[in-house]
Amino acid sequence: MLRDYIKSKWHVYGFAILLIAAGNAIQSYYPRLLGSFTDRLQQGKLSHDAIVDYSLALLAVGVAFGVLAGAGQYVVMRLGRLYEFDMRKKLFAHFTTLSERFYSKNGVGKLLSYVMNDVTAVRESISMGINQTTNATILILSAMVMMTLSDIPLRLVLVCVLPLLLIPWIVTRFGPVIRKRSLNVQDSLGKMTESAEEQFGGIRVTKKFAAEATMNRRFGETVDRIRDNQLRLVRVSSLFQAIIPFLGALSMIVTIAYGGYLTIRHTISLGNFVELTLYIRMMVAPLQQIGNVINTMQRSRASLERIGDLMAVEPDIRESKSARHRSLEEASVSIRGLSFAYPDAERPSLRDISLDIAPGRTLGILGKTGSGKTTLVKLLLRAYDPPAGTIRIAGADIRDFTLESLRAQIAYVPQEGFLFSTTIRDNIAFYKRDTELPTVEKAARQAQIYGSIAELPESFDTRLGERGVTLSGGQRQRTGLARGLIKDAPILIMDDSVSAVDAVTEKRIIDGIRKARKGKATIIIAHRISALKHADEIVVMDEGRIVQRGTHKELLAQAGLYATLHAIQEEGGREDAEPTAR
Amino acid sequence: MQNRPPADQRSAAEQRTVSDQRPPADQKAAFRAFFGYIRPHRLSFLLVFCCTVLAIAADLAQPYLVKVAIDDNILKGRDDYGTLLVICAIYLGLALAGFLFTYLQNNLLQYLGQNIIGRIRKDLFAHIGKQSMSFFDRMPAGSLITNVSSDTETLNQFFSQVLLSLVRDGLTLIFIIAIMFQLDVTLTLYCLILLPVIALIAIGFRTYMRKTYQISRAALSRLIAFAAENLAGMNLIQAFHQEREQQNRFTDNNRTYLRANLREIRTNVLFNRSFDILGSLSIALVTWLGGVAVFNSAIEFGVLYAFITYIRQFFQPISTITSQWNTLQSTTVSVGRIWSLFAVKPEIEDAAETRMLEREKVAGRIDFNHVRFGYQAGVPVLHDLDLHIAPGEMIGIVGTTGAGKSSLISLLCRFYDVWEGDIRIDGTDIRTLPQSSLHRLVGLVQQEPYLYSGSIVDNIRMFDEEITREEVIRACKFVGADDLIGRLKDGYHTMLSERGSGLSAGERQMISFARIIVFKPKILILDEATANLDSYTEHLIQRALRVVSRERTTLVIAHRLSTVMRANRIIVMSGGRIVESGSHAELLEQHGYYEELYLHSQGREERETG
């Protein structure tokens, strides 16, 4: 994947490497210039003009290096960012193809870390890897070449450089330790923030139980942990920071002792000596870079593998080859002998379900949490695949529909009013963002949310979420309802969609829906009887089975779950007027 | 009073305008207070300073040694290898000293900084904990968390980066300039001409870089937020077949971030490279001027060599110091924010002389005597509320949102103080009680039980180690939560994470009931404790509730009339006043608001079928 990217951009990379290499080759002339300057100056062979020439030459070397290396660096970094952009785009597109089965196993935090951390790690390793490796190898190589080209004996060079060769080794030893410890610091900082969040969120409870002292202690522990981790980090990192210049100094000592000795003996010239000290200084940084590159590469290899594994996950809901776009208008749904178990689940969630939903009819599904109501809906939307032939629409297996024809023609209203951080209008018109405002308003009226939205400062253009307005649970649920109703789809599924709404509003909504959905199929799931008692048929589900079916009146007449639930729910009645009153 | 009504009563429009309201920061006073934390450590700071000076001195003396070696030994051509070895030995000594002192200085400074920050964090947290509820109403929790975690972290950066860099790089610069002057005055003066130019370029670039950095950070956080939200809502995106549309929107965000990034990279490269080139320029200048001086025998060659080395070392500290400028600015902001928080005095404090009520002896009589109260000056929420509750009585409170039910119980918990009138428990004004003893006397169960990360046992005893495990288990058996906890993986030691996610709403509520039993309050308030539960769980909870309210004065605020019907007395509130009061049967006979409420739910059925 990464290789493909680099291959496709190889000429740009080649160009950048050439730029950096040229810059560094020029840069390595710098000690050479100063060395020859020294020699000629010492021998008194230098004229005034020549001095000016030397300084101009030094300047030229500096400028050339700056411009060339800078340009190369920019090109490489830019390519890295483009890779990052590309990769994130691909990842996100891949995410949209993965089914609920995948999301039930992978939390948002984990997936987000692919998009953010892993992609960044890979990008850094390409940018930094190419930049610094080129930098370092070219600089070291040309320095070595320059040193051997001049009259400095190779033996001397090797001895002087010896201590420096430890640098890459030290960097690779320290790097992972420092990284691990600084991750610990980050971790403990996160823990403290979490603790503060928890304590401030529960301040009423803390106060009510007069537990301030305990909570201060709990928070204090997280603070102390940060300090301990920080100190553990600084112990290695400062050791590391001090050791590199120390090795540089060791090299210098060898240079002075051995090189100085040879200079005194006139084996090498003073110019050679000066040159040597400058080369030694010059090589500290690139050797350190090589160590860094090794560390980054190791880290990013793991990231690259993780990304590769993720991209290799095949979407498990796929359109079959024979899938066709079919209209659901006037189509009835028939479910026959449907049993279904979630992957990895011990027990089936649905057992032998048979149901018919004809256009113009309303089906009510009642049951406790975990009775299989929502599973049934997920199968209808093909969030999971039902066994072949068990669900048919207009006579065709649901697996022979294109996903689009299914999902565009079934309106689904989930229980939790999940809204996106955009305008209310965009949220309601989610299925088709360019819907005219009057249509949006009509849906909002149907969902009994129009009044609340109209009161907001920017009405339907009000932004929701982080820095915008937050709606109450009931308001969110009704907005979600409007998002489903606006589709005016042949099939509407309401999955406990009025649970957070008070009884009066609930009745208004249900009445409105009955009127609007004449001639279309509607499925209403609820655990409150009031929401579905008008349905043409009501099925009661328990542990994945249909245990009762009939109309409201028929079911009340039977002894069973329906009558029991009715008794509990209507016992003493409920308070109704509360939430809408202002 | 600047109070605002609690969040649940605020309209959306009002919520938008609520921002941090705190006194404007007095920068000077804030910094004085900050240095108050530093002062006790001044001797240690002096030690750090000494270490730094020694480390730098050891570092900077090294090129000078080479100069000595060149001028006095190598150039002289004498066969005096012994002196050269002495120089090497000194060099080694310096390198070791530099190594040691750099290490010491880093560790010591971090140790000091961490201790100071830790102290500030703990103090700040305790200070916030002491505030009254009105404070939490107007301060968004997010901003408080920022204060405690990020703002203090900025202070930490002040120690580990700003202070360190100011001392180390500042001293390095001064030392270099001093050595250069010592080597040759004229040449140094020429070099110093460059200094303001370098500083100007650096500061200019840094300001611009800060701006580009902020833009790209903002773009990044938008990108993350978008991705997180879309991953969370992926089932909806797929159910509405909006994959392509959301991909396009993601790409828009992604591209904005890319652009911001490229701009940032451009600025960075440009800055670093122009600094490099400036370095080459000054070396060329030194070579030219120094070369001519050596040529005229005005200076020795070693001096020129040392100059060239030092001038190269000149740029690093300047670049580092200017990069600290941004951190310094954010430190100023953070110090201001933290100390403006410290400056807020808790609105509710214990009276100078408090009276103790023995919890065992409290009967549980409550009197609201002509209470007037509101959140905003001039807008009363409770008008002349007069309510007297006998020990052990169970009172149900019903009414619409905004009728004053929640205010009533907030006052009894002394989350706020009354404007007029008083509230007494067993005849004692609650304002004369220490808050901690009042809070143990009055227990509150809320609609959304709040659980902490930790084991179930710890959650029930609120991390109070003095309460034994056996007491906790007894309490759970008492409310009927024992079975339910026994079914969990690790029983009572099951660790709850993220506020008890993994437990159902009913299970969480059962735990909070057990908590109440453990703490044995004499007065119990149930604030919509059974809303949001499905019918079966509510059944369980109702049973627990009957057990819990036994022998306690109990106030029940409820959504569903079924909860309240069994109360000894039901209070109907409207517009901050008690409009009706009596038992269920009595109230129905009054044919008033209560009857209307009752018929609304009950009668709906009959109207339709009959």
Q: Report the major sheet of chain B.
A: 6 strands, mixed
Low-confidence stretches of chain B: 1-21, 603-610
Quaternary structure of the protein: heterodimer
Q: Classify the beta-strand content of chain B into a percent band.
A: 5-15%
* End-to-end C-alpha gap of chain B: 54 Å
Which chains make the largest contact?
Answer: A-B, 152 and 158 residues
| Beta-strand percentage range of chain A | 5-15%
Strand arrangement in the largest pleated sheet of chain B: 6-9-10-3-11-12
The helix/strand class of chain B is alpha/beta
Rg of chain A, rounded, reads: 36 Å
- N-C termini distance of chain A: 59 Å
Number of strands of chain B: 12
The share of residues in helices of chain A is: 55-70%
Q: State the total count of DSSP E strands of chain A.
A: 10
Count of runs of 4 or more consecutive helical residues of chain B: 20
With helices defined by DSSP (H or I, 4 residues minimum), what is the helix count of chain A? 20
How are the SSEs placed, and which strands pair?
The complex is a heterodimer of chains A (582) and B (610).
Chain A: H1 2-8, H2 10-27, H3 29-42, H4 48-97, H5 100-105, H6 108-149, H7 154-161, H8 166-201, H9 203-208, H10 212-264, H11 270-312, E1 333-340, E2 350-357, E3 362-367, H12 373-380, E4 391-393, E5 396-397, H13 403-409, E6 410-413, H14 424-428, H15 437-446, H16 450-455, H17 473-485, E7 491-495, H18 503-516, E8 521-526, E9 537-542, E10 545-550, H19 552-557, H20 561-570
Parallel strand pairs in A: 3-8, 3-9, 6-7, 7-8
Antiparallel strand pairs in A: 1-2, 1-4, 4-5, 9-10
Helix pairs in contact in A: 2-4, 2-6, 3-4, 3-11, 4-6, 6-11, 7-10, 8-10, 8-11, 10-11, 15-17
Chain B: H1 12-17, H2 27-38, H3 42-74, H4 81-129, H5 133-138, H6 141-183, H7 185-232, H8 234-239, H9 243-295, H10 301-342, E1 366-376, E2 379-389, E3 394-399, H11 405-412, E4 420-425, E5 428-429, H12 435-441, E6 442-445, E7 454-455, H13 456-460, H14 469-479, H15 482-486, E8 495-496, H16 505-519, E9 523-527, H17 535-549, E10 553-557, H18 561-564, E11 569-574, E12 577-582, H19 584-590, H20 593-609
Parallel strand pairs in B: 3-10, 3-11, 6-9, 9-10
Antiparallel strand pairs in B: 1-2, 1-4, 4-5, 7-8, 11-12
